[in-house]
Design a protein that fits this description.
It is a single chain. It contains twelve helices and four strands. With about 260 residues, it is mostly helical. It has a two-stranded parallel sheet with strand order 1-2. The protein has a two-stranded parallel ribbon with strand order 3-4. α7 (about 125-135) packs across α8 and α8 (about 145-165) runs parallel beside α12.
Length: about 260
């Protein structure tokens, strides 16, 4: 989804930032960052994005810190500005920035407060398939089936709660339908945002995908080879022990029903 949207005119995107869920999770006040909080944010950016501000860039950031003007929003702007500069990505005043970090759904309210004009895409697939895919691809982060089920439930609750009040800013998409009708779905989303959508630009998908996959994100390699390269859903289900399959669906049943998953 990120790569397909990034093909469109004026859009610019970068790899997952984890900015609001991990990098700045420890910062209590969105409008004011302390010196110690900033140091922690630097370290987490290095860990999760493999990115480090230069000494001169840090000086610019810390001048705002000294004036008491450094907020989460300003620090995010600095990250985008300097990351794009390092990678040779053009950022003009007419560009539209696209950010994708799955766990940002947990802090969607905060992001919406910081960026009141932002739109959000939330894409779901059948949670049983999503959980097994997660366990098979993210081998370094192999959470238990039950933990992943509870995490999925919490994320869905956050998104559905947000949707009750801000449905005009949120597009909830089902992966299964998106695979079949992604051009029509994207056209509808762009129409609602009042933005130009050029279907011919979608042919640049693999070019955009390669720009936003980091070297260590081996589980995303198939995304750079073509859209929707994925094992069959039936194959995923067969690899889950039956008792586990029943347990995780019991945990997720209410939210599965809300998203119309059987």
């Amino acid at each position: 989804l990120q790569s397909l949207v990034a093909t469109q005119p004026k859009f610019v995107s970068i790899p997952e930032t984890h900015f609001f869920d991990l990098v700045t999770q420890h910062i209590r006040d969105i409008n004011s960052i302390s010196e110690e909080e900033l140091k922690q944010a630097y370290a987490k950016l290095n860990e999760f994005m493999d990115f480090e501000f230069s000494a001169l860039q840090k000086q610019c950031i810390e001048e705002e810190l000294g004036d008491g003007k450094l907020s989460k929003k300003e620090l995010f702007y600095y990250l985008i500005k300097y990351y794009c500069k390092e990678k040779g990505i053009g950022l003009g005043s007419d560009r539209i920035f696209l950010e994708k970090t799955p766990d940002h759904s947990r802090v969607i309210e905060e992001i919406a407060t910081i960026f009141p004009a932002a739109y959000f895409f939330s894409i779901f697939r059948h949670p049983v398939i999503a959980i097994q895919s997660h366990r098979e691809k993210l081998l370094l982060y192999k959470d238990s089936y039950l933990d992943l089920a509870h995490s999925w439930v919490n994320n869905v609750k956050k998104v559905l709660s947000f949707n009750q009040r801000f449905s005009d800013r949120l597009f909830i998409i089902q992966f299964e339908e998106f695979k079949l009708n992604y051009k029509e779905i994207l056209q509808s989303c762009f129409d609602k945002m009042g933005l130009e959508f050029d279907q011919q630009c979608l042919s640049n998908y693999t070019h955009e995908a390669k720009k936003i996959v980091l070297p260590y994100e081996t589980w995303k390699v198939s995304n750079t080879e073509g859209a929707f390269n994925e094992s069959s859903e039936e194959a995923y289900v067969k690899r889950i022990p039956l008792l586990t399959l029943l347990k995780i669906q019991k945990i997720m049943m209410n939210e599965m029903n809300a998203l119309q998953y059987s």
